[in-house]
């Protein structure tokens, strides 16, 4: 059976998580609210529309969801104008492509944001498939986005590179192997090791 590699976008392809965290805190500060890292981590990898629903509910924000969405989205769009690639991404994609592997990208980010960055760094042609948050109704940690990849590319051994627990759970529940990329909290990872047998870990 063929192997297919699937990459998350934020935190894996691009070094954006710290910037997204600043946006989260800055957004809430506009309304004299103070967020926390635990809440941010729970929203990491989630579609923006769902983030807005959560924040509006948790902090009793008076503005409409549409207005809040537009405020938050403008901050994200400005961030993507200058976001940098993670070290070694281009080399890794080139290596996999030269070996003949199919490569997909699955992210809760909007398609326009993803494709703008990939085009800027000339990475678009490495991907056989891009599934964005625009393509699914339910975001990570539900498995819809990775099931969409399987529906498009068919039966295979899937290896998903993820940096968030929401993303890892999403991929696992879609029946894929998970390569957890980046630094994380070992306490929470250990809990998931106990429950899931097909987690693979790559700490940098």
The number of helical elements comes to 9
Main sheet specs: 6 strands, parallel
Strand portion, in percent?
Answer: 5-15%
Total strand segments:
6
Can you tell me the number of structural domains?
2
Helix content: 40-55%
Predict the CATH topology of the largest domain.
Answer: Rossmann fold
Q: What is the level 1 CATH name of the largest domain? A: Alpha Beta
* Topology order in helix (H) and strand (E) letters: EHHHHHEHEHEHEHE
Any idea what the CATH superfamily of the largest domain is called?
HAD superfamily/HAD-like
As a whole number of angstroms, the C-alpha radius of gyration is 17 Å
CATH architecture descriptor name of the largest domain? 3-Layer(aba) Sandwich
Overall outline? globular
How far apart, in Å, are the first and last alpha carbons?
Answer: 29 Å
- What is the average of the pLDDT values? 89
Explain this structure to me?
- The structure is a single chain.
- The protein is an alpha/beta fold and 204 residues long.
- It has 2 domains: 130 residues, HAD superfamily/HAD-like (Rossmann fold), CATH 3.40.50.1000; 64 residues, DNA polymerase, domain 1, CATH 1.10.150.
- The chain is built from 9 helices and 6 strands.
- The chain has a 6-stranded parallel β-sheet, with helices on both faces.
- Helix 9 links the parallel strand 5 and strand 6.
- Helix 1 packs antiparallel against helix 4 and helix 3 packs across helix 4.
- It is globular and about 50 Å long.
- It starts with a strand and ends with a strand.
- About 6% of the residues have low confidence.
